[in-house]
Fold each of these.
Amino acid sequence: MRQSLAGILCLAALAACSTSAPSTPAPFSVVEATIPDMRQAMQDGRTSSRKLVEQYLQRIGMYEDRLNATIAVNPKALDEADRLDRERASGKVRGPLHGIPIALKDNIHTTDMPTTGGAIAFEGLMPPYEATLTTNLREAGAVIIAKTTLTELANFVANGMPGNYNALVGYAMNPYDPRRDPREATGDGRPVLNTGGSSSGAGTAANFWAANVGTETSGSILSPANQNMLAAIKPTVGRISRYGVIPITADQDTAGPMARTVTDAAILMGALESASPDPNDAATTTCQAPPNRDYTPFLKAEGLKGARIGIPRANFYDRLTPPGEKNPRGGLNEAQARSMADAIEVLKQQGATVIDADIPSVVDQDPRNNFLLWGGGCSNGPRDPNCASPLWYGMKRDFNAWLASLGDRAPVKTLAALRAFNTAHANRNAIKYAQANLDRSDELDLQKDRDKWQRDRDNDIRLAATHGIDEVMKAQQLDALLFPGASGAGIAAKPGYPTVIVPFGLFVPQPPPPGGPGPAPAPYPEGFTLAPAPYGVSFTGMACSEPRLIELAYAFEQATKKRVPPPNMP
């Protein structure tokens, strides 16, 4: 049993003792409570930051063994809550997050809890400095209650590593179906219902804390939000400082808020963003923060009135055969298609103009200008002419720079040393799924391969943005593109564009449309029934368009209110 879980149980027991007096009225419940709910309850004296932390610790103690959503709990969480309660009593309220418990993905530096990235090599690592976003949260009055389970090193260790697996604590489970996959081919302990990308949203969905901070390179905020029925904001790259976050590549990395409502995500977003550019992250000059870093003025129930929303049907909704290929790809299954048809009808009812708007680079018949045909030819490694190398190149460049920033606290000094450590510790499952991505990244030469990286990076931007999202949005004068679930994450990630996702559907998963890449998934054993799974909708725009996307997403959320909590976790 890992040390952090022992801490959970100890703190939960303490919380239970402190709230067991039978004569007291029923306490304010954190279950499905929003940040404004908690803020008002503290203001009215119906609860306190300490009581919120105690309730969350109790829930962690009750359900953690089923979900494995928590990699560490802050042993000072109650002390932090007490300090913030004293500040409130003295008349000092830092803002809407004052006293609110928030969790961080365990690739974000804290100096009072280890930052491991889920890797055995970094077990127990106490960084010498705090992430800028962690400092911003503390200054906003948040209680950093825990670190979330994540896919090891944000899912850039190996191809085929299941989401939310890491060598330190194993697999996190999805609260909407917290069972393990019973099929022989995938019966290695992984969840039957995927938790999504590398930022676990399981704890937020199960009310272990008010909200959490994830990170995304390509889908690791949007996918777990989609899979765990959460609202989330994947910001423009540079909107939130990456200083003190274990990287994959600065070309695409960003942190972002994950919550149960758009309101909570918007509040957390404002606290994460710095008031001025961070000298430790040059990209933070990209966007200007709203006045007082406050995104709540954009929470407008009428935000869809007059909006122009594009529907990129080719590939994202409908099957498409790229030029030169024989088989179609992409598209939605029947349940997903029905869900998106319902979502589009809501947009129209709320006063939006809905326009079919295929992305030009997706339907381009010249293979050189087709986004779907670019970058996947990596069978011979990232030096292959048709292999998009930025992730591999950026990993070696930025990961080695991060290791250097740790000084003498770095357990390994280079990516090569990490690979050697993993091989030497294979008996601890350090390379259960091998480490092909780390190997390929490390084979690159940062000087000799820089020109190819730059060409590939330019092509990423050309196909995803210039001849992609930018072209269609400008031509059709769109406020946003509407993507099913998290399916637009990959194309938006290349230029670092923002997306806001909203919970919407809940239905039993269906197999993907036939004819896709790879073998068809194995059938489940007779008598095994899948539970309904969440499915969301995503609003994507161009750089720095978060305020408008929040308006659209909030209006859609208020018109639908489809989120339901996980079953059997009252």
Amino acid sequence: MAQIESSIATGTDAFRETRAAMLDQLARLRRVEERSRAASEASRPRFEKRKQLLPRERLALLLDPGAPFLELCTLTGYKLDNPDPEKSVPGGGIIAGIGFVSGTRCMIVVNDSGIDAGALQPRGLDKQLRMQEIALENRLPYVQLVESAGANLLAYRVEEFVRGGNLFRNLARMSAAGLPVVTITHGSSTAGGAYQTGLSDYIVMVRGRSRAFLAGPPLLLAATGEVATEEELGGAEMHTTVSGLGDYLAEDDRDAVRIARDIVGKLDWNRDLPSDAREGKVPRYNADELLGIMPLDTKRPVDMREIIARIVDDSDLLDFGERYGSATICGHARIEGYSVGIITNNGPIDAAGAAKATHFIQACCQSRTPILYLQNTTGFLVGRMHEEAGIIKHGSKMIQAVTNATVPQITLYCGASFGAGNYGMCGRGFHPRFCFSWPNAKTAVMGGEQAARTMTIVTRQALKRSGKDENPTQLEQLERKIMSNFEGQMDVFTTSAHVLDDGVIDPRDTRQILAFALSVCRDSERKQPQSMQFSVARP
């Protein structure tokens, strides 16, 4: 046994201050997330008048009662749709996550049509593409509840139109990969968005509410002079009886969700999965203590074994190469019974630590053990001694190992994620299977103060070469500007808004969320859908 012995003193002022700061960040997170719910709820009178359910009500009916639902990317677009942070509504106009439908774990994507009629919001495209990527990689059936006004023409950008083709490409890829795409078209599915419905394997349409057409009546009249009502042009009854686009005609939203649940249940998706009853031993230390361990100040050191002790089964970590490259921690553990290799940092990564991590990643691949990266590092060590030790060579080997690992990799930003340390520790650019953040996490090419000092030195050298005198006031202004720019961008509320993680989580929920992610990875490894050369084509 290798239980971690904690040395955290929970009664100290430092612990209480850190805990209070983390709780403040969590409260801010919940306030911001609540805005999307409130904005959608404000549309209730309009939905009730149309005898429709709100998007989150549809989602609640779709999900199995009492089963877990992991909502993802809740901060998408925060402060990007509105420069006033007090008025910005996060979420990208999309509600998305992994949940259970009729006993089947699915990726679920819902157009939040209570907000701007479901029009795609800034970064909403990135969020949808990320959900499709997760579904493809983890072999999850894809259920989408569609009701969207389509692209926001007032904020039209040609690059988003072109990139939007990836949404439809991925729907075709999922179908061809044997991953059923089940769609309820609750309302509008117009222009290019009509293919969101058309590229589905099973389509449920709602009488009197569903609309699917390449050109709506106004565009049709402008383009061809033809006059047609919405119902004549693309209503549910026409599509389920004449065009063949729709497969099932529902009477209302509730009936549509019932049909979709029945479709997923009839797929018998779990028939090839063996029973996976697992029992994990709870950690020896309270998860609530995670709030007081990781400070907001990234310069304050943290023993990451204290974090591990409150996440893994029985607080048991079998250290790998404990005495070599000791600032880089590698070891084997279990989370809710799932085996996992853990890599984290008690400081910058040196050459020995990079070499050890490379070895450990390859060993995990050999034993088919998923890898969890707990990021808290200022990057790779620099300086003459470290260059002579081969820091570039060994760091490159670590990055190669991360890139080519053959097992699922999960990343959690616990604190600092600076410089190439972000890369070596499987940052978002290296496509971890899942990537989560704590509310205190910070991501940047380097710290703000370091960046400011670097540019001051460069500026002084440039002035000296040109024979000009230094202006202390201007240099001070330059430092403040750089620090402000860095601090504003490294904050987790900014990085998550750009979909640079899959969501910001409460540290106390870390063990449950990681176990859920590991179970998704385990099921995906054992699931072998019937792949085809082509996706399912409609009649």
Amino acid sequence: MKQFLKYFLASLLGSLASLIVLFFLSIIIMVGMISMVSSEEEVSISKNTILKLEFKQPVPERSQFGDINFSSLMSGKIGKDLGLNDITANIKKAKDDSNISALYIKLDNFNIGSYSTIEPIRNALLDFKKSQKPIIAHGNYITQKAYYLASVADTIYLTPTGGIDFQGLSANLTFFKKTLDKLEIEAQVIKVGKFKSAVEPFIVDKMSKANREQVSAFMNSINIYLLKSISTSRNIDDNEIKNISNNMLVQSPDDALNYKLIDNLNYEVEVLEILKNISGRKRLKTVSLKKYNKVAGASKPQTSNRIAIVYAVGEINGGKGSESEIGKDNIVDAIRKARKNKNVKAIVMRVNSPGGSALISDIIWKEVELAKAEKPFVVSYGKYAASGGYYISCGADEIIAEPTTLTGSIGVFAIIPNMQKFFDNKLGITFDGVKTGKYSDFVSASRPLTKGEKAILQKQVDTVYKTFANIVGVGREMTFDEVNDIGQGRVWTGLQAKEIGLVDEIGGLDYAIEVAKDMAEIDEYKVLEYPEIKEPFQEILESLQEDISAKIFSTEITNIFGHYSKALKMVKSKEVQVRLPFEMEVN
């Protein structure tokens, strides 16, 4: 009887605890839902308002709900983080908004990670200037990426005691070879393409000659384009701007002023007074980009015509995928829905991917082929459209890239770790077993590859490469030899890719949509985005089956150890991969 009571009470207490947790979670969710609904209400602004742009957060391809955690739920701050799509749309809206008298770019804590993301915003600002409304920029410390955006402004101010970076581009790659040596782990590499250097971090401790050649080529391509753009915007001679950058002549705020990179040295409080005078108000009135997003724009055309935008963002892996990962399910379903929707007259696929699984890339490519057979299919490239990212899109009717997009990387590889010595010498673990056939334990991390296994893997990799090159050849109307000459895993910028025929035009997503509209022979349309973005609380409810506490309270370790986690994913995969040769940020 005592045992019965003991277990009964324990069970009762457990049930009560669960009910209490669910009760409080329900309250938190309700508070969040109420705040979210109120945050989506339309906003109005008064005359002579100045639109303020700040970029303190990374900019995703499209607007999406921010991370849902305990803090955001309790504070009720679960609004959307503005994506590239809405940022450019709002600048376009401000151009024709009579209530907006000027645009102010605050350059501090600039956090847009790539020049390919900055480019569409910069182009939107150039278009805004046609309205004759001034663009004013100010920073206490201006990074090179922030300056590239600000260079279109009518006036750039820098704090007198501040700083500015302008010394050319650099990029550092991370190598794991010495770590693997210490752990007595051998990375067994099978690849095709002398430039396919995704495997280099695991087998050497510095860049190979071929890799250094390709990185130098595309870095110089990016640098020349950026300097040319700045030269044009700031009316500085081409050779002079190169000299300033190459020799780091700007080392102080006074240098920046003397070399005409900026227009004046002022504190922000002084710039705010200048903005007040521009607006003609006694009291300065500004509106943030996030708030301005809720201001009604021009009425949309009354038409059933739709242009579908399919966002293919992130590494290409199996599974259902997400906003930041291309899975088999999410992108295939998205393309299929766009193809079957009778109101969709054309499809634009926005690709921002360094590649990944060759198998999933091929499955997505096939879906693109089916869609292209029924309606115009245009591709727009973001930061990356390399390897698998190029594979899935090379058959499109038209490919449009940003000037600084990294694309191509037509090559294939597989990495199989041999961890026998690590297990034996470091952990004291050994393995033994039986098998019914010569290759029953094909590809095992607990021993070296046999000669026969290496031959099989090489054949698989060669086959995938030939398939990849042939698919590119059909899509781009090239022979295998022509593709092979520009393939071999080599990475190209968008500008270089246009010269060699891998892309058709240089431009952004807006231009790709216009191309799709013309191909579909329609005048008016509305945009339809795929995959659909789930409401945040739909995601919470779906995740209740998994582990709600982990979803709300946990911290992603991979955010801290990004390079390590991605490298680990590569060596753990048993699939043949079509992936960009490096994890690199251009600074």
